[in-house]
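Hey, I'm writing a tutorial for new members on how sequence and structure tokens pair up, and I'd like a real worked example in the thread rather than a made-up one. If someone can provide the structure for the chain below, I'll link this post from the tutorial.
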Amino acid sequence: MQVKPTWKELLAREKPLLLPCAHDALCARLIERAGFTAYSVGYGDVKNVARTIAGYEAMGVSAIFMEDQRAPKRCGHMAGKDVIEADAMAAKLRAAAGARRGSDFFIIARTDARAVHGLDEALRRAELYLKAGADGLFIEAPQSTEELVQVGRTFQGVPQLANMVEGGGRTPVLPPQELYRLGFAMVAYPTTLIFRVARAIETALADLKDGRPAGDNDGVGFEGFKDIVSLARWADVEQRSATSRK
């Protein structure tokens, strides 16, 4: 069985590490087939955090994001957010760091304080979160290239993530290599896939409404889709299971 690289190994290999975000299992499967990786998110108080870390680590998860945004959650580039107390977030990070069994499990601390309290508070929280046990930082939604420069310079040497929301996000969308030069080892693309999927669905529905069924070049095709979802492998599992019951 092929051993998947850890998050730390990916960071050392990919410069920067590009993270297209999955919104469902099919997207996750396509991301994996394209050679990218995915991430998971955990919530709750310190007890829930410790249990979440133990469970994810046992499943083979290599990294986790933890955020200080208060429920109900909103996209980091939308208005109306709030954040929990910084000390409460730091306690969760200490619980997460204490619960992990291996040194390769990577904890990324996200703060949404920039939109709520300003950049200085976001930087203060990031420093606190590092001291609490975070391995990497995600300061969400800097509002200019100058702010990206300041964030990258403030935590030089710490693996940092830049979040690129195309088509109207608060952070300037810069090329990956420029972000890497500014100090961001990870670049997330949370909307790239879902925006294009939404457009493709709109186009397909309009075609159907106008009586134009999909042509051979309009999608992955039946055989291609069966390959994507590993239908043959699951059919083999069903067949072997049926045989063993006889």
